[in-house]
Amino acid sequence: MKLKHTINPVLLQLINFIILVYSFITYIPWYILSGSRQTIAKSKQIKAKPVKNKPGSPYRSVNSLHCLASVLYPGCDTLDKVFKYAKTKFKDRKLLGTREVLKEEDEIQPSGKVFKKVILGKYTWLSYDEVYVKATNFGNGLAVLGQQPKTNIAIFCETRAEWMIVAQACFMCSYQLVTLYATLGGPAIVHGLNESEVTTIITSKELMQTKLKEIVSQVPLLRHIITVDGKPTTWAEFPKGIIVHTMASVQAMGAKADNVSKQQARPIPSDIAVIMYTSGSTGLPKGVMISHCNLIAGITGMAERIPHLGEKDIYIGYLPLAHVLELSAELVCLSHGCRIGYSSPQTLADQSSKIKKGSKGDVTMLRPTLMASVPEIMDRIYKNVMNKVNEMTSFQRNLFILAYNYKMEQISKGYTTPLCDSLIFRKVRMLLGGKIRTLLCGGAPLSAATQRFMNICFCCPVGQGYGLTESAGAGTITEVWDYTTGRVGAPLVCCEIKLMNWEEGGYYNTDKPYPRGEILIGGQNVTMGYYKNEERTKKDFTVDENGLRWLHTGDIGEFHADGCLKIIDRKKDLVKLQAGEYVSLGKIEAALKNMPLIDNICAYASSFQSYVIAFVVPNQKELTELARKKGFKGTWEEICTSAEMEKEVLKVVAEAASSARLEKFEIPIKIHLSPDPWTPETGLVTDAFKLRRRELTSHYQLSRVQWVELQSFEFIC
C-alpha cells in the first residue's frame, strides 16, 4: 500500500536528490557491515517442505524435517522443571515487574461521565529467586487449605505478576489451573466454575466485588476465595462456608508448612497443566485441556522464531493471561531470562484512558524490546497515526509520505533505512517506547496494510502468528527477515501442517498454483481435547495411524512455494447466497476495516437473500466531519441513527469496496451504524477482539426493530 501525495515538483526533485546522494554514500559500507546480504539470502530461502512428494502431505519447517522439537532444555519435560532450570540459571536477575500507583483521582468529563485516572511510578521487580519462593509458598499454602494434586483450581484475574506466580505454584504442585477471562459475563463464569467443580478461586478484590459477589451463590462447591490484593473481606450475603483469604496469608501458611513440599506430587508430562476456557465466538466457553508437554512443545516452537532471545530483552505483558497467546509468550520469556513488565490496555501508552494527562504510560516507562498484540489494537494504532499524519502541515505530510514509500521499497528488497528511521519515524516508534525489536501479532488475521505500516513506522519486524488454544497457541510464525505481508509464516519446529480437501467450498490440495484446503495441525503441541465434552473432542481432533494427534482448525489455507502458509478463508465465514455465489464474510471485513471512516465492521449474509449487509462502528471524528460536510447536525447518537447518514456512509463503503476489487455481490448494500464500540465487556467481541457473530446478530435484531428488512433476515453464523 503506497501512500498518495501531492507536492511541489521542485521540492520533490530536491528531496529525491538528497535521498539519492545519501543512499549512494552510505550504501556500500552499510551493505557490507549490516549483514543485509545474509538477510536477503535468508528471506529467499525455502522455509518449509512437504514430508512426502504427494498432495496432502504434511509440511514441516526445514529445521525439523526429520524430527519435531518437543523440549526447550534436556530433561525439562514439565513446566515446573522449566522454571526450576530458569531459576537456577538466572537466579538474581529481574523477572516480574509492576508499577507502583502513586495517585488515583476521578476526572469529570464534559459529558458528565467520571473517569478514573492514575499517576504511576517506577517499575518494582521480583527476581527469579523471589518469584520461585513466592510460588513455592503459595502452592504449599493451597495444600494446607486442602487442595489435592490433579484437582482443579480456578483463576479469574486481570493480567499481573500474581497471575504468573499462581500459575507457577500450580505447575509445581500438579494442580490443574482453570483459567477464566476477567471480562467474561456472569453465565459464562458460572458455567466454567461449575463444570470444572472448583472449590477454590483466585481473583482480584475488584473482580470479587463487581462480578463474583453477584454469582457466588450459583457455585455450590466453592469454599475458598483468594484475593491477590487487599485485605480479606466477607460479605453477609455470601453463602455460609465460603472463606475469603489474601494471597499473602496463603503464602504465609505455606512458608510455615515445611513438610508439605516434600509430600507434594510432582507432575508428569502428560498431566493437565491448564484447563483454558476460551471466550469463543459462539455459545458458552469450552474448556481446552492443555498438558505440560503441550505447552512446552508450543513454547519451544515459538522461541525458535525469535533470534537472540535472552537476558537483554524486556517483554510488556498486557493481553489477558487467560488467553493462550499471552500465556505462551510469557512462558517463552520466563524460560529465557527475559524481564516481564506488566501493564493493561488502559495504562499502556501516555494517551491511554486511565493515564493522567501529562504522566507516563507503561511503554514509555518500561521501553520493552518484545511485544505481542492482536490485530484490533494494531489497527487502532495505524488509524491514530494516520490521523496525526493528515493533521500535519503540507510539507511535513509529504515528507512523511515520501519517506514511507521510499522505506517500503527498500524493505521489500531486504534493506534498512537508518536515516529515515532516526529522522522521520522516531516519534512514531516512541509510541511503543522506542526499543521494540520484534512485534508479534496473533489471535486473528492482520491486514496487509496494517502489517506493512507497522513494519515501516515502528522500524522492526512485525510477525504474524497462527495458532489456536487447541494447539497450545502454536502453529506458525513468520521469520523476522520475512517482510512479505498477508502470510502467517512456515510451521513451527514443534508441529507439522497439512491441508485437507474441502469439497463444499471448492478447496483442494491439488489446486494450482498453490495447494489449498482446511488446515490441520499435528504434533505434541496439539491438546488433549475439551473438558467434559467428548463429542466435540471427537469432532475436532483425530489420531492418525502413527499415533500423531491432529487438530481440524476449520480455517482454510494455502501453502506458497517457499513453504509459508496464508489463511484465505474460514469454513464458518463462508455463506452461499440465494443465487449460488459463495461469500467470504472475513474477506469483506478485511477489505473494509482499514477505512478511516470505520473503526470496526461485521459483515452478514444469508442463504435466503442475495445480498450482504454490514454492522459498522464508525470513527467518531471521521463521521462527525462527514456529517458537517453534508449539513447534518445532531448528537453522536443522532448521527449514527440517521438514515441519511447511513446512506452517505454506504456510498463511501461502496467506493472503497470497489477499489478493493470486491465482487458486486460482495459489496454490502445495507449498513447499520453503531454509536457504541464493541468491547469484550459488551460481549460482542472476544477478549482477542474476534467478532462474535451470533451475539452481534441477536444484539442488532433486538435493538433496532424499526429496521424492517432485518426482522425477517435469517442469518447464518
Automatic annotation (TrEMBL):
GO cellular component terms given for this protein: endoplasmic reticulum; Golgi apparatus; lipid droplet; perinuclear region of cytoplasm; plasma membrane
PANTHER family, sorted: FATTY ACID COA LIGASE ACSL3, LONG-CHAIN-FATTY-ACID--COA LIGASE
A GO molecular-function annotation: long-chain fatty acid-CoA ligase activity
One BP annotation, GO: very-low-density lipoprotein particle assembly
Bilayer-spanning residue ranges: 12-33
Domain AMP-dependent synthetase/ligase: residue ranges: 118-531
InterPro entries xrefs: AMP-binding_CS, AMP-dep_synth/lig_dom, ANL_N_sf
UniProt keyword Transmembrane, yes or no: yes
Catalytic class of the enzyme: ligase
EC number: 6.2.1.3
UniProt name for this protein: long-chain-fatty-acid--CoA ligase
Pfam families linked to this entry: AMP-binding
Keywords, sorted A to Z: Fatty acid metabolism, Ligase, Lipid metabolism, Membrane, Transmembrane, Transmembrane helix
